[in-house]
Structures are given as structure tokens and as C-alpha cells.
Amino acid sequence: MVDESHLKIGRVVARQFVGKTPSDFKLTDNRHDFAILPKANTVLDLLAENHTPVSGIGMVNDLFSGRGIENRIQIHNKQSGFCKFLETMETQSIGLIFADLGNLDKYGHARDPQGYGIELMRIDSQLKEIIEKMTPTDLILITVDHGNDPTFKDFDHTRESVPLIVASPQCEWQSTGHSFNI
User: Quick check: 127 and 144 in contact, CB under 8 A?
Assistant: First the structure.
């Protein structure tokens, strides 16, 4: 139905709530994304066409309906996603490892600043271990898909600019602006 609607819907998110009244509803971790196949090739398709290994960890597979992802790694929680990421770094020497490692969105929607802060610190501590395992030719890109301020009064996404963090052992920061050489 969504494909035929011509509304350009990218995905439908099915998410369970628990509770008996709207005032005590809570989101569960039971989620499934039903993605609409992209109308054109993505970077994942280009990598697959060029025989470059692509591993998708967690909900990445759902977002792209598995298209362009050779190694689909399911996880049961964000902690196992981090472990699977480290394992994949050990076994996959080239290609792309595309992972969803955080749960900031959950705490943002729940408007839980304390949970958001704890989750952000958990992700930050795990990034140190990932960076320590990087080889000289590795590149890590970290970003998010939207803002979700946990102190905002409404349930919907908020509109902050999203970060793009780039790190590599070969990365050299230039002090004359916000650029880098790789």
C-alpha cells in the first residue's frame, strides 16, 4: 500500500508500547522497520557491485531491506551490537562495517535526560575501544539521523544540527578551518 501511495514514504516503524493508559505508556525494545526499497542505487549497492564486503549490524539491515549488505548481523541489544562490531573488525579486513551502536533515540523520545546522558557516556567509553583497534588504513564516521533533545516538551524529533565525527590514524587536523587531510 505504501509503495502505491506515491507519498515517498521511506519506512514504516512498528514499535510496541506497554501500559494501560496513555499516561503510563512506555516504548519497548521490540521494533521492526519495514523499509521501502530505494528508488536508485545507494552507496551500499555500489560497494556490493565492486565486490567490497559490507557488514550491517543491528537495524541497519531493516533500514535498507538488506540491499547491498553481504553480512547481516542481528543483535539483541545495543551492548551485543558493540561486541559484534569489535568481532567484525577482527574478521573483516576491508570494506564497510555499518552499525547502529546507540540508543539515544529511545531516551530522547522518552524525554529522559538522565538516561540519555548515561547512554551517551556508554557509547563514548566504547568508542575508545574501537579507536584503539583501528588499523592505519581504517576510517570511522559517526553521525545520527536526526536530533532528539531529551529536554524538549514534545514527543517528536527536534531539529538540532547533527554531528559528523571523522577519525582515522592517518587523519591530520588543519588548524586553519574545519578541514582535515586523509
Answer: no
